[in-house]
Fold EamA-like transporter family protein.
Amino acid sequence: MQRAALIMFVAMSLIPLGDSAGKLLTSVYGVSPLWVASSRFFLAATMIAPFVPRSAFALLRNWRIWLRALILAGGITCIQMALRTEDVADVFAAFFIGPLISFALGALVLREPVTGLRVTLIALGFAGVLIVVRPGFGGGTGLIWAVVAGTCYGVFLTASRWLAGLGSPVALAFTQFAIAALALLPFGLANLPSATVTVAGLTLVSAAGSLLGNLLLLYANRIAPATQLAPLVYFQLLAAVGLGWAIFGALPDALTWLGLALIVGAGVASARLRH
């Protein structure tokens, strides 16, 4: 379990690192969020392609695989829109409405057990997101994009549980990268950035951080029970806070810390309860 936990911590650091590179591209170098999202999926699909079994291509005939990938493409595009104007930690806090939505959809769509405690935890997590976003009370409008991204991610997580038996984790990962890359390709080509070494390097870091983080997450789940790993997903929030401070010199305010505490507490408890 110690090795799996270490892998999870690395994975959960790489994902916000990739998004921090995306924020640098959009907020500092003026690159379009559509380019960041499309290039991330294209490079990820290219990097993982040599390791994909042939059976993965048969999955492309299933409309549910396409729906799942398109939802992910929308979510990643929205989070890049949010990162253009908002701090990394705030965006990740709002984005983490996703697991809570996934728990709710699991009950409504997948008929997973519903309890009063589970409903209470979802409500607490949602309250935490509202404290971070503060709609109409000083929260940045870009955080609405993060909430939309988190909602897409919650639907994506539910769809992933729905379709888990269709193929191996690597095969499913490849299909989501390839389909999303295809869907976003026209938007990416229409927003090509200036060809500089810095932009190219940050684009590569953005894609590689997301890809390696997700692959390590899949590997950790192969060597340790999901019941023990699920709460560690929330390490992304701590990594996002650290990266936001180290790269952008930004730290959450007092209300955002309160919202973060509610989100993490409700999310960890919900993950334990579900498993």
